[in-house]
Amino acid sequence: MSPLLRIQFIGLVSLWAFFSSASISAEPSQVLEKIKKTKTLTVSVNEFYDPFYIENPNPNFPGLDVELAQEYAKFLDVDLKIIPLRTFDQHARMLEKGDTQIAMAGISSSINRFRDVYFTDPYLISTPAALVNRTALPPEPEGQIVTVQLFRNLNDLTNITGISYSVLANSSNHQFLRDAFPKAQIFSYFTNEAALNELKKNNVNAFVADSFYIQALLQKDSSLRENYLPILGVVQEDHISMATAKRDVEFLYNLNFFIKELKRTGKIQGLINKYFKSNQWVKKE
């Protein structure tokens, strides 16, 4: 055997030995073992983010994330326990302590959050979106048939002067606004509800949130379209993912396979249609 062939042969044998030893020494998922032992999957959800989680819901409309959790519990053949929480830090602490196994809370992944948790592949793709006061936008040209929507995404507002924005403080949407509109007036608030109220009180011209939040608002109150233009086109991809503790890659692999199957079979799209293209989940007052 020539020296070159000998080197290639040794390299292939070493590579085979590495992967063989890795697969042999791989331990079963501790998280999955705990779920099977207790016969319970514990999932945290966002307490204030309908329709991902809906408190006291209409029958058969518990929320998109709750339905995903139900599907995964069924996949594992275990019971499901849902824990509503308020902040990302709370979700991360519960995962780290092992009190929950998954956070399904409409969470968008980011580099900063990756310091605290692992993220699955995205099950939804969102984008910064807005409701804009129609009086702040230039009128359509008179006497012309408009065939193209003038304002498809937030970037289309770049050349419109005088627009002020309200947004949830320290969110990815807040960061997007600061980067995309460095000279604009941007007011941040502790909750999306407070930011939306500033738009309704005419203290700002536009309320910015993720596209699913805006779509949910329109399902809850279709009259918003009378005074505010929804701008929902994609300006950047925000990946809505499940979060797990940073210690069990095999569990993460299991979840990713589950998500791919839900996408392949159309289950995810069905849930999008159920909660964002229909208002049957909206509770009657």
From TrEMBL:
PANTHER family: ARGININE-BINDING EXTRACELLULAR PROTEIN ARTP (PTHR35936:SF17), MEMBRANE-BOUND LYTIC MUREIN TRANSGLYCOSYLASE F (PTHR35936). GO terms for molecular function: ligand-gated monoatomic ion channel activity. This is Polar amino acid transport system substrate-binding protein. Residues 40-278 form the Ionotropic glutamate receptor C-terminal domain. GO terms for cellular component: membrane. It comes from the Bacteria. SMART domains: PBPb, PBPe. The keyword Electron transport does not apply. Residues 40-279 form the Solute-binding protein family 3/N-terminal domain. InterPro entries: Iontro_rcpt_C, Solute-binding_3/MltF_N. Residues 1-26 form the signal peptide. Keywords: Signal. The keyword Signal applies.
